[in-house]
Amino acid sequence: MIPVNIINEIYLYIILGLLGGWAIATLLSRVRARSLLNKARFKLSRVEEEVRNRRREIELEKKEELHRIRASFEKETREKSDELHKLSKRLIEREETVDRRLLEMEGKKKEILVEEQRLEKEREKIRDLEIKRREELEKIAGISTAEAKRSLLDTIKEEAKEEAAQIIQKVEREAKETANKKARKIVATAIQRCAVDEVAGTVISTLSL
Question: Where is the Ribonuclease Y N-terminal domain (predicted)?
C-alpha cells in the first residue's frame, strides 16, 4: 500500500496544480481581458478622435459655407443697392426733366395765349380799319359795297374776255403753223378751261374781299 502521507502529498500537488492552473488561467484571462480592454479603449479613442476631427471639419465647412453665403448675400445686397440708387437717380432726373418741360410748356402756353390775344386785337383793329375804309370809299364814290362788287365783276368779265380772245388767237396761229387739227382742238379746249378757271378764281377771290 501507498503510504497515506504520499497520497496526501499527491492530492496536495494535484490541488496546487489545479490552483496554479486556475491562477494562470485567471491571470491569462485577465491579461487577455486587459489587452482587449486596451484595444477597445484605443479603438474608442481613435473613434473619438475621428469624431472630433470630423466635427471640426464640419464646423469649419459650416463656417466657410456661412462666410460664403454671407459674402454672396452682401455682394448681392450691394449690387441691388447700387441698382436701386441708380434707378432712384434716374427717376429723380426724369422727374426733374418732366417738371422742367412742364414749366416750359406752361411758359409756352402763356406766350401762345398772349400772342393769341394780341392777334385777336390786331384782327379787331383790321376789321375796324376795313369797315372804316369801306365806309370812306362808299362816301367818296357815292356807291354801296354791293354796287362796287357788281362793277368790279363786270370789269373782270370784260378783261377775262379780252385775255381769252388773245389766247385763242395765239393758239390758232400756232395751230395753223403746225397744221395739226388734233393739237388745235386740244389746245383750244385747254385754253377755254384755263380762261374759265381764271375768271372763276378771280371772281371768287374778289367776292371774298
Answer: 10-197
